[in-house]
């Protein structure tokens, strides 16, 4: 008899990419600058859509946005923007594409001033992830005072698509916050 692993209720078990993301990324502390930058932009691209939609386009995003090289993205011109807006592999929204380019510029400034997203984010939680103990998904908030504060600070620094709800999802995605529910097999790691 095989035991079925219990996972958070939001996971589409029919999508192996989604299961992989849940089991190996979501809620796992990340300190990789490129992935932190990638996830910030993907969470912003998700606004108004499902995370699964964006996750399914992740490989196309990596290719379209030069593997999330912020220095290259910061130099994108109108020709590159037109190319991106014609790319069916990404969310073709002019505001979101422009936000990614602007976010690259804001990120480079943040990196210059504080060392990058790793130093910035983990400094907000004294280097330790927040591990919540939710009995069910319904208990999990959409935003918190921490996400409110980070959202305001990033917006002031020129980042776009960084509302508090997006930032809370981002903090979950990069493991600053571990919101795996108590009965999920990933909760205790």
Give a nutshell description of this structure.
The chain is mostly helical and 189 residues long. It contains 10 helices and 2 strands, in the order H-H-H-H-H-H-H-H-E-H-H-E.
Descriptive report:
- The chain is mostly helical and 189 residues long.
- The protein has 10 helices and 2 strands.
- Helix 9 packs across helix 10 (164-173).
- The longest helix has 21 residues, at 94-114.
Features:
189 residues; mainly alpha; Endonuclease III, domain 1; two-stranded parallel sheet; 10 helices; 51% helix
Structural class, from helix and strand content?
A: mainly alpha
The major β-sheet equals: 2 strands, parallel
Alpha-carbon Rg, integer? 17 Å
Kindly report the oligomeric state of this protein.
Answer: single chain
Order of neighbouring strands in the sheet with most strands: 1-2
């Amino acid at each position: 008899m095989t035991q079925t692993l219990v996972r958070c209720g939001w996971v589409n078990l029919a999508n192996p990419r989604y299961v992989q993301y849940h089991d190996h990324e979501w809620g796992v502390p990340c300190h990789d600058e490129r992935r932190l930058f990638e996830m910030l932009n993907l969470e912003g691209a998700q606004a108004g859509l499902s995370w699964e939609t964006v996750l399914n386009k992740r490989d196309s995003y990596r290719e379209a946005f030069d593997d999330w090289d912020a220095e290259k993205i910061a130099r994108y011109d109108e020709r590159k923007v037109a190319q991106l807006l014609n790319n069916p592999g990404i969310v073709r929204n002019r505001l979101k594409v422009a936000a990614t380019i602007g976010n690259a510029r804001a990120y480079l400034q943040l990196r210059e001033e504080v060392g990058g997203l790793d130093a910035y984010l983990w400094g907000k939680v004294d280097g330790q992830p927040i591990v919540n103990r939710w009995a069910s998904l319904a208990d999990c908030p959409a935003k918190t005072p921490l996400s409110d504060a980070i959202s305001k600070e990033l917006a002031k620094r020129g980042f776009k698509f960084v509302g508090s709800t997006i930032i809370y999802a981002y903090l979950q995605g990069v493991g600053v916050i571990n919101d795996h529910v108590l009965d999920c097999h990933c909760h205790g790691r």
